[in-house]
Amino acid sequence: xxxxxxxxxxxxxxxDGTLIGIHASITNIQExxxxxxxxxxxLGFSVSFSVNSPGELKELVKDKPLPPRDGSxxxxxxxxxxxxxxxxxxxxxxIYDASDGRRYKVxx
Length: 108
Fold this sequence. Notes:
The chain is mostly beta strands. It is built from one helix and five strands, in the order E-E-E-H-E-E. Strands 3-2-1-4-5 form a five-stranded antiparallel sheet, with no helix packed on it.
């Protein structure tokens, strides 16, 4: 069993001015093998996103076609521009009561 003790709806700010809202949630914790430092913890989690790009970026792409459904555009490195992450903050922390009798603080 675990209890959420801290979390925030975070963000990632990109160099092109895009702001990505992120919410990470731990949904499940299962114990693996026991080690001297405690059990291996296998986490289930979900991540939700919302994206807000500057108006000038939306104008640049508004008349472009949607990408092909077969995903062939993903491997075409010549069409992509690398955008740097300028700032980021997002996490969730839980306290997990393990079968070894100890409590662990787990972060995602």
